[in-house]
Amino acid sequence: MYQTDPPRPPQETMPTMYDLPSELVGESGLPDEFHRIQADLLSETCQPLAYPSEEILLASDLNLYYDPRHPLWYKRPDWYMVLGLPSASQQQDLRLSYVIWQEGIDPFLVVELLSPGTEQEDLGKTLREVNRPPTKWEVYEQILRVPYYVIYDRYKNHLRAFKLSGTRYEAISLSENRFFLAELELGLGLWQGTYQQTIGLWLRWYNSAGWVPTQREQAEQERQRADRLAEYLRSQGIDPDNLS
Question: What pTM was estimated for this model as a whole?
């Protein structure tokens, strides 16, 4: 492709998600059960008041291509959020990857679910090797400047959160393993409970009213309200089953 003056924008000249691989041979492949269930809970309870759902991308293990100078370099966050981004309304438009130079919006928050094999890199304790891509920490902090970076170690029940301050991440002080994001009117914290028939300590969103309910919990709350109403009507001599 010939150079033009002025140069053509990256959206026209750089590879798109259709050109870039979603997986590479030799990678570990699909996430394990914990990663899948935890990502589902994060997505299901993430309901920011300031953004309609159709303007939020919630992604899990979706390749994130971040450097137009090295278009094949990518990271694959366990879970991340992009705000102000129109979501796909048609199945054929669903993203194969997230390509920064095409989308034009950096992630707002990244979550990494710590495992023994990734701990050092996730925590920014590894140095970049010569002629190799930057580490996760470098990409999130220095290149993409993701405002919030969250790390959850389920093996030690340890939650850590960082907020970009200037050019560096600073640790957020947690109270009862929770922290609030004023921009979203939501908080993230560790919740003990059962999700998808699995008991554990899960990373979950909450708001001013408490933990954001899942669809199943919402349905159960509606059923309980209906039962209470029916009980009250019967106490007043009214048969709720015969109401028109």
Answer: 0.84
